Amino acid sequence: MFFQQADPENKLSNISSHHKKTAKNMNDRTNYQDLPENFPEKSAETNISEAYILNLCELQQMQGAMEQLKQDLKASESRFRNAIAKNADGIAIVNKQGLVCFANPSAEALFNCKAEELLGQAFFGNLVVESSACDIEMDADIIPQVGEIEAAGMRVVQTEVEAIRKHKANAVVEMRVAETEWEGEIAYLATLRDITDRKRAEEMLWLYDRAMAATSTGVTIADATNPEYPVIYCNPAFESMTGYRREEILGRNCRFLQGNDTDSEALEILRKALKTNSECQVTLKNYRKDGSAFWNALSVSPVRDRSGKLTHFIGVQRDFTDRKQAEEALQNSESQSREQSAQLAAALNELKATHSQLVQSEKMSSLGLLIAGVAHEINNPVSFIHGNLAYLKDYTQDLLHLLKLYQQHYPNPVPDIQQETENNDLDFLAEDLPKILSSMSIGVERICQIVQSLRNFSRHDDSQMKPMNLHEGIDSTLLILNHRLKGNGEIPPIEIIKQYGNLPPVECFPGPINQVFMNILSNAIDALDDPNSQLTFEEMSENPSQIKISTEVVGNFVEIKIYDNGPGITEEVKQRIFDTFFTTKPIGKGTGMGLSISYQIIVERHEGKLYCTSELGKGTEFTVKMPIVH
Ligand SMILES: Cc1cc2nc3c(=O)[nH]c(=O)nc-3n(C[C@H](O)[C@H](O)[C@H](O)COP(=O)(O)O)c2cc1C
Ligand SMILES: Nc1ncnc2c1ncn2[C@@H]1O[C@H](COP(=O)(O)OP(=O)(O)O)[C@@H](O)[C@H]1O
Ligand SMILES: [Mg+2]
Description:
This protein has about 625 residues and is an alpha+beta fold. The protein folds into 4 domains: about 1-190, Beta-Lactamase (2-Layer Sandwich), CATH 3.30.450; about 215-320, Beta-Lactamase (2-Layer Sandwich); about 340-455; about 470-625, Heat Shock Protein 90 (2-Layer Sandwich), CATH 3.30.565.10. It contains 20 helices and 19 strands. The strands form 4 sheets. Strands 1, 2, 3, 4, 5, 6 and 7 form a 7-stranded antiparallel beta sheet that branches. The protein has a 5-stranded antiparallel beta sheet with strand order 9-8-12-11-10, sandwiched between helices. A hairpin with a 2-residue loop joins strand 16 and strand 17 (about 555-565). Helix 15 packs across helix 17 and helix 17 packs antiparallel against helix 20. The radius of gyration is 65 Å and the shape is rod-shaped. It binds flavin mononucleotide (FMN), adenosine-5'-diphosphate and magnesium ion.
């Protein structure tokens, strides 16, 4: 060791010079100071011998005291040496020339070389350099160069330097230099503390701080040991995001950013996460200092110490406003385009329906025209027959009367006439002829009725509303459908029950209204004639098919109910019966147009109502309700 080799007795005396002055134990232990200061005066010989004895004695005493002093000094030195040797800080003594004249083991470790290598080396500017790596010029007085602080009346400086290490990277060192004495000369005691790790940690911390400052994401740290979770750190991005300055934020709970409309669901998630010390992510509305709102995409996570104890919460905040707005815009445009395509689809459907309705009404109107033409054509000859039948009846009566007179006045005619009379059974002929004529006139009457009905039905002057006798319309329709009502060998006839009320003429478009009656009545007949119904002819006869038609005035409306005791309609089908093209009938029979056209005619053209009530197995009733006057 350096101490053993470097003559400690001698060299340490310098170091301990100060120590000597202050070591109290020496005063306590030695008693040489207690010796009498003034000795009594005696005769010369006595004095000499006495003095000799006394001196001897004193000498012995002094020798003892010196011995004691030496021992004390040694003990003190060894304590001091020990203290220096064991000191964790490197200690070097540098003489006036700036050369190392002492180094402790920690200094050896610091410079990574033996003390003897250090001894005699220039210290300042060589073994230690300024952190900036510029040389420290060794001057007569180092102290003014590095600054000066006061410590117990001594000149002491403290500075940060770099220690140049052998075969090792430089270390950052905190150096304290104090004036001391070495071999009677002024020297410097340098205490060196390796702060490389601390410096590195500080540097990292500084880097983290730079990163925090550079990011545009808000970062906050809250003290988790305080139930209020006050913010103890926030980065610049959080300041600019919220518009609050750091000093306005620190110490507060972040809830001051919220408003009345901050999403309570998100807050509940936050509360729950904080309560259970778990992570959470929410997006919630916050307000800046200037009152403007922004969307905050916040994530909060717990921080624990090495023992697992919760110490902090870290909050990471991102301004989500742009994304939120973009999302909303996207949603809007999506819903807009959905709406548009729905509108387009609806328009297309409507177009299809209108097209089909046009085709249908075109058909109906050509049918109407045909019927009207036929009715007109038949009407003339029939009126001709109808008109002449009365004359024919009269003339026949006259002729028969004349014949009777002849028979009275000429009872025995010539044989030829007698023969002819017998051949022709003149009596029967005279009796039957008027009967034939009256049955003919009934037939012609019926033809006239039918023609009238056809003309009624085919009224197709739809340019404006006209008062219409609805009963006539219904009857005409029934007449046209008569062939389906009569029944045949397979299907029993359908009974028509009319419960007509007292209806005034109703303002409407007669052609389309007749078309509605036609659609509803033919559906009723279809339902009653349903080939799928498993009923036998007998069962059907026992429970005869019926169509009941009732009309009445209800307020300003007329109400026409058309009921059939057919199979009824399931709820599922009922939802769709007014849809265009909806049919349950086989292809060729059903078009799915009838009710949708009827709905349009009643609801849209006549501002009325058309609805259906039905019970499975009991029957179906359609109600047409429309205003009497428009
Ligand atoms: C670290 C941390 C950061 C937070 N940052 C915000 C924030 O930016 N905006 C916000 O509205 N709430 C934030 N909160 C949540 C509130 O501070 C508070 O916990 C929340 O409003 C629920 O608690 P309360 O019911 O006591 O208000 C944060 C919480 C923590 C722990
Ligand atoms: N009186 C009724 N009884 C049972 N079902 C009916 C009745 N009237 C209409 N429907 C049902 O409504 C559907 C649609 O009728 P409609 O529009 O006239 O078309 P189509 O008669 O061509 O099928 C019919 O297919 C049928 O299923
Ligand atoms: Mg139909």
